[in-house]
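[step 3/7] inverse_fold.run input=structure_tokens len=1201
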């Protein structure tokens, strides 16, 4: 018995033969073909192939004729009888019975026979399944598909149909392999990919589902279902942004699709919550506005669907809770009426959003009254409406709407613990609160939120022990809950917690749940613990101002935070807003609250430089009888700023008379202020005399010790020695001790200095001793590093860099002190080699590698990322980038980057307000000029330099602006203008020796002759600068003169100057290299071996003193040794020279030297290294030619090989 598949090819060939015959005889007409097929049958009546061909011909011919198709069916029957293995005949018979004679039973049998004979027959299989599906025989349909797929792996139709059926029956795990197999046969079928994605989605394989849906969308971009489901998966995975994109694309295809509207609104709601949690309230509110519009459109499409109304209510409720109040302006003169109006408008907007949310929830409840959670939603929105209406007075015997709605939810789901907690939160009766929360705990004893609110209730009832136990239980169950942490920080007095620990607890609560109450509490604890200037507190209190602008405490604490960050103008604005909010929204408050805010306002105005306004505030307080001791001090200080010294002295007498009767903190503040006034008004001597007359009890304080020590540091006669020594005995903490040493070091700078300069060395000596005692003191380290830079010693920058501690706490939060990152960035620039960029330069600085490892620019960028408002960090980044660009020969990408950074920095308006930043603006303009010069933009270079020359800074700095103009005019070939700027440089002068050296080079290069000796002018104007490193600067001046001599071909004079420079500098490898090179040139010109000996000596010293292996030194030394007949030393030096160069920088001449060395080694020399043997002499010279093909010497050497 032959295999049933054996006849497939036979009948396929028969059909193919029929098709070929039709093509061959297409011109003879259908009748001719019909006669031929009939002749074939008459000749071979028992052959099934002609019968099948004739039936197929008639079937195709009789598309519109039932009679012809009946004749075709007769021949299909004969063919099937003659050969029962002909699956094609059964297929067409199935078509006849299903389409012509409408006999479904026979059609089923024929199709089933065709599929049994040939399982790959998709046409028969699909027709069979369609008939079974139409008859409701789904189980038989599955069986047919399983049988066909089991017989042949290429029965892709069966796998596809089976996959669809399994999807329909929710058999997801079985559908996946079926659909995967079907996709192999139909890889471009979008339906298959869509179904596979759905199966993956139901199995929780979301990544695979997204990929399958994505493939379906690629194949057919008009499909909505995969877009909607992809969006739903993205929302489940938390990728709300991608979900928004998917839903938006679905709506572009089908704008009336309710599911897409619902999904888009949900995704926007989720995305807005992410923004709100990150602090971006304004962005979150804008997303909620868009979500509300989408959800509203969805309600029009499906107005009887409860879920869309509930979603709209959720969106409106979130909008009412997150909409921030935005500040209209930040002027010092605030308009109280405009401030009130803006807050009232904001509250009205939030109120209407809450009303809209409540209305949508009510509509959802009308459509689905069995949904218990909607009752609670209505209760929450009603409570929010009541809060915006300021319905604070409640009748405890009357049930309010929020409470009634929660009870409605409890009637439906009485065992829902969350509903009981909601009832406990919303009701106003403490007993009912307790009952509801305990009822929730009876349902679930591990319900952390119930324990937390129970702790809050006990705290309000002053049951501190019970509150503590409840909070501890909640925190142990769920540490991510905010309320227990806030409760622990609020109870820190009773718990006897240190302020730092209470601050950390409240910080955690504010980070978990950023609500205004927690954020204001955080600021208050930061005030007690000394963290008021931290960025976490600043961000939190800013959010509280935006979320609760009607709280006076929000603005008051914001003012204190701004004061701690030295932003006094903003602080004054906040205090004024706090006072306005206090009078408008707080109701009846004690006068002490108004007094505290007014004193804060006066203090901030005074520190911001608005002394007249501060005096007016103090006088207003005095009229109302609210001017206390702190206000009196501020009043006196403001009067002193205005120059009213008589009034200040009269107030000082009042303070001095009552000082002994004051408490310790107030006494210290008064005595300190008295000492400052006496010094600034009466002078140093009068202040000292007055201090000596004051009672000794007033100086028994560490704070007063600092003030007296500061005055003592200015007194050369040391009259306050006894007072200072006795007051220092009250300094106990390590922080105070290091601060006192800081002050002592500064006093040594003054006392051991002169009128011309400070005694830096004396201060450095003291700080070094202190650093041994307190090695972890950042304050001492920063001052030591700063003074090392200030001393301008030759290697001071190296030491300054080692003094600093780079870490999380490397900043000083005090006004007037240089922070570590500022010193670090300045040291990197002063060191002149920050990146050790070996591709273009060979640094000889001893600390260059260390600075490279610490990554100066990355540290500064990290600082700027933490404090975007820090303009000093931005400035240091720019000048360090300039240094990096200089070392890399100003690549274009770095120049573009620096240009953008400079434009951003110069656009800051701070430069026009702050006089101390004028120098930074000057430097930035010079940097911009340099970038333009290196880019060939001579006009831009000149314009920037001219702008720099107009900055209001001392003439010794303006010298460099005119020096830059000299360079710009020289590059632009404008020599008359060059001469004019050169003369202006001589007129302005500078105390920086580098400026004179640059000017000397310009003078020599462009032959700008004058009667003045520039180097002599440098000695005269820079005597203070070069005092500590006089010998080194003399060596540099000799180097400058020697370079000029080399330009004029006066090598003997150059050698003499370089020899002097080497003797002065001692250990500078570059000077020895220059001297050795000049000696080699003199030996070549004069044929004098004495110069070769001098060259060998200098080159050896250059090799010994260099911190890295300097190129050129070894090859010159080898040539000098070879000139004296030492071939072995020449070979050794060449081997060392090879490794002195980075691989990408090796010059062509080095390859020529290696060619010579390789040739000598080939001739039999024993002192060979491994380098020259790597390649043949020919390859070495070929590589030299490749690097420099224009050198004729290399070609001549190649010809002689």
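[step 3/7] decode complete -> sequence:
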């Amino acid at each position: 018995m032959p295999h049933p598949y054996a006849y497939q090819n036979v009948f396929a060939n028969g059909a193919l033969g029929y098709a070929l015959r039709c093509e061959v005889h297409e011109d003879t007409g259908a009748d001719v073909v019909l006669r031929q097929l009939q002749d074939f049958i008459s000749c071979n009546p028992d052959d099934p192939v002609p019968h099948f061909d004739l039936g197929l011909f008639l079937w195709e011919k009789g598309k519109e004729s039932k009679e012809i198709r009946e004749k075709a069916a007769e021949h299909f029957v004969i063919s099937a009888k003659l050969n029962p293995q002909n699956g094609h005949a059964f297929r067409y018979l199935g078509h006849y019975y299903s389409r012509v004679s409408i006999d479904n039973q026979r059609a089923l049998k024929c199709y089933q026979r065709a599929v049994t004979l040939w399982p790959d027959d998709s046409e028969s299989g699909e027709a069979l399944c369609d008939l079974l599906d139409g008859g409701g025989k789904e189980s038989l349909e599955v069986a047919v598909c399983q049988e066909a797929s089991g017989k042949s792996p290429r029965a892709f139709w069966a796998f596809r149909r089976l996959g669809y059926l399994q999807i329909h029956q929710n058999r997801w795990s079985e559908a996946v392999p079926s659909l995967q197999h079907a996709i192999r046969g139909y890889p471009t079928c979008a339906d298959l990919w869509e179904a596979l994605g759905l199966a993956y989605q139901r199995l929780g394989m979301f990544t695979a589902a997204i990929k399958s849906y994505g493939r379906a969308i690629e194949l057919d971009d008009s499909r909505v279902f995969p877009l909607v489901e992809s969006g739903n998966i993205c929302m489940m995975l938390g990728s709300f942004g991608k979900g928004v994109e998917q839903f938006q694309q679905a709506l572009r295809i089908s704008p009336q699709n309710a599911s897409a509207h619902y999904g888009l609104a949900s995704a926007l709601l989720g995305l807005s919550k992410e923004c709100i949690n990150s602090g971006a309230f304004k962005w979150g509110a804008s997303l909620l506005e868009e979500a509300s519009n989408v959800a509203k459109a969805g309600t029009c499409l499906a107005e009887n669907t409860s879920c869309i109304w509930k979603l709209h209510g959720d969106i409106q409720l979130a909008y009412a809770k997150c909409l921030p109040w935005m500040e209209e302006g930040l002027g010092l003169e605030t308009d109280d009426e405009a401030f009130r109006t803006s807050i009232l408008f904001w509250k009205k907007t939030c109120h209407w959003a809450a009303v809209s949310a409540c209305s949508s929830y009510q509509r959802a409840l009308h459509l689905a009254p069995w949904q218990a959670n909607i009752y609670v939603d209505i209760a929450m929105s009603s409570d929010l409406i009541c809060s915006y209406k300021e319905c604070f007075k409640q009748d405890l015997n009357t049930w309010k709407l929020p409470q009634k709605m929660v009870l409605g939810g409890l009637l439906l789901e009485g065992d829902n613990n969350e509903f009981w907690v909601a009832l406990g939160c919303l009701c106003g009766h403490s007993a009912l609160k307790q009952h509801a929360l305990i009822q929730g705990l009876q349902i679930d004893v591990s319900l952390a939120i119930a324990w937390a609110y129970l702790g809050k209730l006990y705290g309000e009832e002053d049951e501190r022990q019970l509150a503590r136990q409840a909070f501890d239980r909640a925190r142990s169950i769920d540490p991510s809950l905010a309320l227990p942490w806030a409760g622990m920080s609020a109870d820190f007095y009773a718990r006897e917690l240190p302020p730092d620990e209470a601050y950390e607890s409240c910080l955690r609560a504010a980070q978990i749940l950023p609500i205004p109450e927690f954020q204001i509490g955080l600021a208050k604890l930061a005030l007690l613990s000394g963290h008021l200037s931290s960025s976490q507190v600043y961000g939190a209190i800013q959010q509280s101002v935006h979320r609760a602008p009607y709280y006076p405490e929000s603005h008051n604490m914001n003012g204190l935070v701004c004061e701690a960050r030295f932003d006094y103008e903003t602080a004054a604005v906040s205090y004024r807003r706090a006072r306005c909010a206090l009078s408008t929204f707080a109701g009846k408050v004690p006068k002490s609250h108004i007094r505290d805010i007014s004193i804060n306002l006066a203090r901030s105005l005074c520190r911001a430089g608005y002394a007249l306004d501060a005096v007016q505030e103090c006088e207003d307080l005095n009229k109302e009888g609210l001017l206390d001791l702190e206000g009196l001090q501020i009043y006196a200080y403001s009067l002193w700023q205005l120059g009213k010294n008589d009034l200040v002295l009269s107030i000082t007498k009042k303070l001095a008379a009552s000082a002994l009767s004051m408490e310790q903190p107030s006494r210290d503040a008064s005595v300190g202020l008295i000492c400052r006034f006496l010094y600034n008004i009466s002078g140093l001597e009068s202040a000292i005399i007055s201090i000596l007359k004051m009672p000794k009890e007033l100086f028994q304080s560490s704070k007063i010790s600092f003030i007296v020590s500061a005055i003592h540091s200015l007194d050369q006669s040391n009259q306050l020695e006894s007072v200072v020594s006795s007051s220092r005995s009250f300094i106990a903490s390590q922080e105070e001790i290091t601060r006192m040493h800081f002050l002592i070091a500064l006093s040594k700078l003054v006392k051991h200095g002169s009128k011309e300069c400070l005694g830096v060395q004396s201060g450095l000596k003291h700080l070094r001793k202190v650093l041994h005692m307190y090695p972890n003191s950042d304050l001492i380290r920063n001052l030591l590093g700063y003074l090392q830079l200030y001393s301008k010693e030759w290697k001071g920058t190296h030491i300054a860099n080692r003094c600093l501690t780079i870490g999380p706490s490397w900043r000083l939060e005090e006004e007037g002190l240089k922070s570590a990152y500022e010193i670090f960035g300045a040291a990197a620039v002063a060191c002149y080699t920050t990146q050790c960029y070996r591709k273009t330069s060979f640094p000889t600085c001893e600390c260059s590698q260390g600075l490279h490892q610490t990554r100066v620019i990355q540290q500064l960028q990290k600082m700027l990322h933490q404090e975007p408002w820090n303009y000093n960090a931005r400035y240091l980044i720019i000048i360090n980038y300039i240094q990096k660009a200089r070392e890399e020969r100003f690549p274009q990408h770095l120049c573009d980057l620096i240009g953008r950074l400079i434009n951003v920095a110069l656009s800051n308006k701070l430069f026009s307000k702050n006089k101390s930043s004028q120098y930074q603006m000057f430097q930035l303009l010079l940097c911009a000029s340099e970038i333009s010069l290196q880019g060939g933009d001579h006009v831009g270079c000149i314009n920037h330099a001219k702008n720099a020359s107009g900055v209001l800074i001392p003439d010794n700095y303006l010298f460099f602006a005119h020096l830059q103009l000299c360079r710009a005019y020289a590059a632009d070939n404008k020599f008359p203008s060059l001469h004019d700027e050169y003369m202006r440089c001589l007129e302005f002068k500078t105390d920086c020796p580098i400026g004179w050296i640059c000017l000397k080079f310009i003078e020599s290069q462009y032959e700008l002759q004058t009667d003045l000796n520039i180097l002599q002018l440098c000695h005269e104007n820079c005597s203070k600068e070069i005092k500590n490193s006089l010998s080194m600067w003399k060596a540099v001046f000799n180097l400058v003169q020697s370079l000029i001599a080399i330009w004029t071909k006066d090598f003997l004079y150059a050698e003499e100057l370089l020899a002097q420079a080497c003797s002065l500098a001692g250990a500078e490898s570059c000077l020895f290299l220059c001297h050795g090179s000049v000696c080699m040139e003199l030996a070549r010109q004069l044929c004098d071996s004495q110069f070769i000996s001098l060259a060998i000596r200098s080159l050896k010293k250059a090799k010994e003193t260099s911190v890295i292996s300097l190129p050129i030194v070894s090859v010159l030394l080898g040539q000098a040794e070879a000139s004296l007949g030492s071939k072995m030393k020449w070979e050794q030096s060449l081997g060392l020279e090879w490794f002195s160069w980075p691989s990408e920088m090796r010059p062509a001449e080095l390859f020529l030297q290696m060619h010579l060395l390789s040739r000598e080694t080939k001739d039999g020399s024993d002192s060979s290294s491994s380098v020259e043997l790597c390649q043949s002499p020919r390859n070495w010279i070929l590589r030299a030619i490749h690097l420099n093909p224009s050198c004729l010497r290399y070609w001549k050497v190649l010809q002689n090989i």
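[step 4/7] annotate
The chain is about 75% helix and 0% strand.
Residues 13 and 532 are 92 Å apart (CA to CA).
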